[in-house]
Amino acid sequence: MKIDALIQEKRQDPEFNQAYEAEGEKLATALALYHAREGAGLTQAELAERAHTTQATIAKIERGDNVSFEKLQTIAHAMGKKLTVGFK
């Protein structure tokens, strides 16, 4: 069985599907930060210095670890950006 078919099968389970969706949202946030940082031409260390945090914190967020809105807002401002949140 191919992985896509297996995922589709597992997503029929509401509990699995909820967890799958939640992980997808975390990944989207992680990728958004990564692309914004890369687009700004900054390393993790450079962004961390500007945001008054650590490189390890930036790395954790880019891996999809939980983070507060306040921390994301501070990081966005350090890149000269504004944090926006949307619901689909």
Automatic annotation (TrEMBL):
<feature type="domain" description="HTH cro/C1-type">
    <location>
        <begin position="33"/>
        <end position="87"/>
    </location>
</feature>
<protein>
    <recommendedName>
        <fullName>HTH cro/C1-type domain-containing protein</fullName>
    </recommendedName>
</protein>
<dbReference type="GO" id="GO:0003677">
    <property type="term" value="F:DNA binding"/>
</dbReference>
<dbReference type="InterPro" id="IPR001387">
    <property type="entry name" value="Cro/C1-type_HTH"/>
</dbReference>
<dbReference type="InterPro" id="IPR010982">
    <property type="entry name" value="Lambda_DNA-bd_dom_sf"/>
</dbReference>
<dbReference type="Pfam" id="PF01381">
    <property type="entry name" value="HTH_3"/>
</dbReference>
